[in-house]
Each structure stands twice: as structure tokens, then as C-alpha cells.
């Protein structure tokens, strides 16, 4: 399921406070968030990981159409990816997925400074900011900070 328009807007808004380093989206789906992120941050490297064939292929085609040279999208399980160069991670997963990310991040060193999650919290971290969407469920979007910029 893609992020809603309101969630995408909130995530893009929060991303403006996260410096200039590489942005990785874990589970980038059809590119509903990844493509606007790459357009909004032409000076930043944007990387997406998506397991499903059609969503990944669609994003790869959109990358070509929009000539997004700052974007790379891989058909790959992000749990087996090297995330060490990510400065900002974006995700919209399920609670289990958030747990897996937390475990993955704890087991490796890296440059991660921020993580923005749509709807689901990281189980063992405290968000530094939260946007409550004006949708039916008042869905949260969380911003986590990992180290001083
Ligand atoms: C809820 S969708 C969100 C899509 C997109 N991030 C968005 O906001 O519109 C979650 C996506 O994560 C992908 N996904 C889940 N686990 C994954 C994994 N371990 N590696 C790569 N992709 C994964 C799913 O295939 C799905 O497309």
C-alpha cells in the first residue's frame, strides 16, 4: 500500500531538516515517495530498495522518464543491503519490519543521522518529532535522530 498524499507531504517536510546526506527508502513500493523525494532533493543521493518486481520496475521506468540521475533503485531485500552510507532512512512498513530495521541498525556501524517512519514507531527509540496527520486515523509520522549532525 503506498503512502497517502498527506503522509508523503509530512515526510518530505521533515526531510528538509535532515542535512544533505544520502537518503535511503526501505521498501520503496511504486515510487510514490521515492520519486518526489528525488525531485525535491536533486543535490542528495536517493536510494530505494524494493522486493516486488512490478513496483520496482515501475520506479525504474519513472526514474528514466524524469531523468533522475541522483536516484538508484534496487530490487533487493533491504535486510541484506549495506545501509552504512545512509544519512536519512525513510520507511512505511509494518511493526515487524520496524523491529527488523532496529535490529539491523544496531548490528552495524554507519552514518545514519535520521529516520522518518510513516505510521509505525521504532520499538526502542524515542521520536524527536511527530506529525499527526489530519486523516481519519490521525496517523503519525515519526522523526528519529541517531547522532549529532
Ligand atoms: C506499505 S509499502 C510502502 C511503499 C512506499 N514506501 C510508500 O511509502 O509508498 C511497503 C513496501 O515495502 C516492501 N518491502 C517490505 N519488506 C521489504 C524488504 N525486506 N526488502 C525490500 N522491500 C520490502 C513491500 O514490497 C512494499 O512494497
UniProtKB/TrEMBL annotation:
Gene Ontology biological process terms in this record: methylation
Species: Reinekea forsetii
Record's keyword terms, sorted: Methyltransferase, S-adenosyl-L-methionine, Transferase
Record flagged with keyword Lipid biosynthesis: no
GO molecular function: protein-lysine N-methyltransferase activity
Source organism, top-level taxon: Bacteria
Protein name, per record: SAM-dependent methyltransferase
Keyword S-adenosyl-L-methionine among UniProt keywords: yes
InterPro entries, per the entry: FAM173A/B, SAM-dependent_MTases_sf
Amino acid at each position: 500500500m503506498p503512502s497517502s498524499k498527506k503522509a508523503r507531504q509530512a515526510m518530505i517536510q521533515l526531510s528538509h531538516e535532515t542535512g544533505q546526506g544520502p537518503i535511503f527508502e526501505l521498501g520503496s513500493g511504486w515510487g510514490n515517495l521515492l520519486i518526489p523525494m528525488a525531485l525535491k532533493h536533486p543535490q542528495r543521493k536517493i536510494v530505494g530498495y524494493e522486493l516486488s518486481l512490478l513496483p520496482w520496475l515501475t520506479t525504474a521506468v519513472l526514474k528514466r522518464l524524469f531523468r533522475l540521475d541522483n536516484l538508484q533503485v534496487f530490487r533487493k531485500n533491504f535486510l541484506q543491503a549495506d545501509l552504512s552510507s545512509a544519512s536519512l532512512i525513510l520507511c512505511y512498513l509494518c511493526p515487524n519490519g520496524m523491529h527488523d530495521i532496529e535490529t539491523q541498525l544496531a548490528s552495524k556501524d554507519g552514518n545514519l543521522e535520521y529516520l522518518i517512519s510513516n505510521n509505525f514507531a521504532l520499538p526502542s527509540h524515542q521520536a524527536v518529532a511527530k506529525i499527526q496527520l489530519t486523516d481519519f486515523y490521525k496517523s503519525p509520522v515519526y522523526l528519529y535522530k541517531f547522532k549529532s549532525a
